[in-house]
Write a structure and sequence with these properties.
globular, disordered C terminus, 5% strand, homodimer, DNA-binding, mainly alpha
Chain lengths: 149, 149
DNA sequence: CAATTAAGGACTATTTTAGTCCTATTTAAA
DNA sequence: TTTAAATAGGACTAAAATAGTCCTTAATTG
């Protein structure tokens, strides 16, 4: 299975709750209570999302977290890369060095294509789509040839 | 990073070598020599690919492995799921049980959409594309709405 | 100034993944 | 019919990645 860590899954749960009431400020403790995820873990995720600019935070009493942009503008690609790093399936897609080292390479340029295809797919889905479960979005066309420029 | 294990990466290397000479029978030892991947590891991967029907094998002396179908008909989705299991980013996409257990769910139906989108993307790339590195394929359109039926 | 809340980082435990090895089975050829 | 060359299957170990926790510091409000 191509996988994404549990933390990323938790992040979508947390962000979905926040998106449903997008102007509120949520404290970490509150999110832990609502989602059932342990507080230290929720905190960790929230901090990561702030660093990735998906969330904004305010410290001090009455502080907490809010969405940094409209749910329509927060893509699944952004959420996943916040928690998992750059979207890429293999090392060599990230650094060419790693690629050159391995023998038998020359194929791997194509992982790049695969990664781009997936990245585009993930950019086409937003947090707004996630909280609007059964809505049918407009058709999205992904011209693969555009990846080869 | 959304990731795929090293074994999957190795598998693409091995399969690419085989696709370039698609009617030959390759022994595991030969593949190890050509790719530089250790023999036990190569063997493990080849066995997995046979189980997934991506390769065919013949035992005994002069035995070895061959592609089970034309490179055009072996999709990247097939290769990845052979090594990683079903293509899905989260547990709950595979079993609904896992989904129901977690609190705060209801969002996760949408992971299903994301998984389908990725799966379609991976089905659109074949082994033939991998060995024809710089060719520009025809445009491929992925109508996301079709996933909602 | 006290209470509340986030930031940052270090650390541990758990789980997954990679990699190896052993034994059994099949086939071809001498 | 025996030997050599292959794959099949599974058990096991080691290494790496991930999840999860905790502690100390910093900021804000009343």
């Amino acid at each position: 299975m191509i996988r994404v860590g549990k933390l990323t899954d938790y992040a979508t749960v947390i962000l979905s709750v926040m998106a449903k009431d997008k102007n509120r400020v949520f404290a970490a403790m509150e999110m832990a209570a609502v989602t059932g995820i342990a507080l230290p873990t929720v905190s960790k995720i929230l901090k990561i999302l702030v660093n990735a600019k998906v969330l904004m935070s305010t410290r001090g009493s009455k502080g907490g977290y809010t969405l940094a942009s409209e749910p329509e503008n927060i893509t699944v690609a952004a959420i996943i890369s916040a928690l998992e790093g750059p979207i890429a399936l293999t090392e060599c897609s990230i650094s060419k060095q790693a690629c050159e080292q391995a023998s038998g390479c020359g194929i791997r340029a194509n992982w790049h294509l695969i990664n781009q295809t997936i990245h585009n797919a993930l950019e086409s889905v937003t947090l707004a789509d996630l909280v609007r479960p059964l809505a049918v979005p407009e058709e999205i066309y992904i011209p693969v040839a555009s990846l080869y420029q």
